[in-house]
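Friendly challenge for the regulars: who can give me the structure tokens for this chain first? No prize, just bragging rights.
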Amino acid sequence: MAFELPDLPYSHDALAALGMSRETLEYHHDIHHKAYVDNGNKAIAGTEWEGKSVEDIITGTYQAGAVAQSGIFNNASQHWNHVQFWEMMGPGENKKMPPELEKALTESFGSVDRFKEEFAAAGAGQFGSGWCWLVKDASGALKVTKTENGVNPLCFGQTALLGCDVWEHSYYIDFRNKRPAYLSNFLEKLVNWENVAARM
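First reply, four minutes later:
Bragging rights claimed.
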């Protein structure tokens, strides 16, 4: 099926007071995400992947250990990553962490604060462009991971519970080169924890 750019689940200025400006969302969603959609549709046209779900395209075209994945994989995975990213954030009404998520994080990491430290460290430590994730693996265990470029948890049979984009276009307008500050702000002000809990 053709990739489609979804509307943001909130207005472009809904996160401005929380550290993600209207300008960032206009560039990130309206230009960068749209480019993945447009280029992805061009890349799959006339191939075996035309008409397949984005998840099937990602898992079918991912090559473990490849220095650079194919254009089809890169655009499909980045499209999927960004769809999740927009939903994992919110303007304010969903900032309280549901008890079941707090319990799961405490059991897995020792405390919510310890989880946040590991998540932020993964994002800050990702060399170059990529993502950091909270995932549930096939055994049901919660783990913090990081991936290069557009690689995502689907490639490893994991469920993405929370992901943060650490490509520069996600934070440079608002935080310049201060990736750790962006990650801290993301965790403390932007995450929609109800969305994260629902993914468990």
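The chain has a mean pLDDT of 95. Helices lie at 22-44, 54-61, 71-87, 99-109, 112-125, 172-175, 179-190, 193-199. Your move, everyone else.
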